[in-house]
Task: inverse folding
């Protein structure tokens, strides 16, 4: 528009009408504040405040502001009218009569209206944004608490495998502080030489979207080796994988106990094989042989494989079967049985039979069969 000439009256009316249309249909609340009261609001401002303009014009606007924010808003308005505070956005709470407490963001400018200072401002309802931010903060606080307090060692790695976060359990287990480990490649920090490349491969799999779980070994700061179970999960931001979450469960003592148990069982088996008497174990629910030693194989003539497919009833004569049945019934009822009993037994070779004494030792049942150890002499 040509500004070289004065505007004609009809042109002024057209521009005023255009301005009025823009303000009245604005998506933000617009207001004019002068002489310590509101003298104009647009429909959006009415909607945000939850009050009709007549109510707003006739009331102290500061009474519609949350009591904890009221003095702050009043002070900013006064300083801005005095010209000692420039325009800057800030947020506070208002009291909506139907929707309760709402958050708004305000930006106001000092202007001269009809020869006097006034504030022309706009207000945006940011309640949903604030609530979303509070929800994110609560979620982050929860996740932070879980990460920091979980009993297993945990670490957050970036896409290159460099450490960005360690929980306290990781620092205690491996001996590295957050400052010492920050930015270092995880596999260079704790991977033993004989496991070289394992951590890099795990990182590659997780970045491809896999969940990794394996039992392996890792090295502490002091050089000692730990047995660990590692779980690796992708960290996603939307659809994009942005890092790796790694958890290390220390199973060193558990594996030591298992190895000690296996060694003890092996020593026991070796001892049993050397005993100059038959030793066998049966399941009292089925009477099936569970283990036998070489003495039993030699005396009765059955192979080990044949024994393990048989029951105690297959080994004894009719009289012996009856004795075995009665003893099993008493054991199943929790009753005491004589530890030593004489069984008439039948050997594999036709026509041969024998007598023997069996000493029985019931064992506590945990999982699987209820075993009974017996010695045959």
Result:
């Amino acid at each position: 528009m040509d500004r070289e000439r004065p505007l004609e009256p009809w042109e002024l009316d057209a521009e005023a009408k255009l301005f009025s249309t823009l303000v009245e249909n604005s998506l933000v609340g617009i207001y004019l504040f002068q002489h310590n009261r509101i003298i104009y609001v647009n429909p959006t401002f009415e909607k945000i405040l939850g009050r009709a303009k007549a109510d707003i014009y006739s009331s102290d606007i500061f009474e519609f502001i949350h009591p904890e924010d009221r003095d702050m808003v009043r002070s900013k308005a006064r300083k801005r009218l005095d010209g000692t505070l420039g325009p800057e956005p800030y947020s506070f709470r208002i009291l909506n009569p139907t929707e309760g407490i709402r958050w708004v963001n305000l930006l106001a400018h000092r202007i001269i209206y009809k020869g006097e200072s006034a504030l022309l401002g706009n207000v945006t309802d940011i309640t949903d944004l604030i609530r979303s931010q509070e929800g994110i903060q609560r979620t982050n606080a929860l996740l932070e608490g879980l990460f920091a307090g979980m009993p297993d060692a945990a670490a957050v790695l970036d896409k290159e495998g460099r450490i960005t976060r360690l929980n306290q359990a990781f620092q205690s287990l491996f001996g590295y502080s957050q400052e010492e480990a920050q930015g270092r490649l995880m596999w260079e920090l704790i991977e033993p030489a004989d496991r070289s490349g394992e951590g890099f491969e795990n990182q590659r799999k997780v970045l491809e979207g896999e969940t990794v779980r394996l039992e392996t070994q890792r090295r502490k700061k002091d050089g000692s080796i730990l047995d660990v179970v590692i779980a690796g999960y992708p960290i996603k931001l939307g659809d994009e994988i942005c890092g790796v979450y790694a958890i290390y469960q220390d199973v060193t003592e558990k594996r030591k106990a298992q190895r000690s148990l296996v060694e003890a069982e092996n020593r026991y088996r070796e001892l049993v094989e050397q005993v100059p008497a038959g030793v066998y174990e049966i399941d009292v629910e089925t009477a099936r042989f569970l283990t036998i030693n070489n003495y039993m194989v030699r005396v009765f003539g059955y192979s080990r494989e044949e024994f393990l497919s048989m029951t105690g009833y297959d080994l004894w004569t009719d009289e012996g079967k009856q004795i075995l049945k009665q003893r099993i019934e008493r054991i199943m009822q929790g009753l005491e049985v004589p530890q030593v009993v004489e069984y008439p037994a039948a050997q594999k070779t036709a026509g041969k039979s024998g007598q023997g004494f069996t000493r029985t030792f019931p064992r506590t049942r945990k999982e699987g069969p209820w075993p009974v150890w017996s010695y045959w002499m």
Notes: The CA atoms of residues 76 and 113 lie 19 Å apart. The chain has three domains: 19-130, 150-251, 275-376. Residues 351-355, 364-373 have pLDDT under 50 and may be disordered.
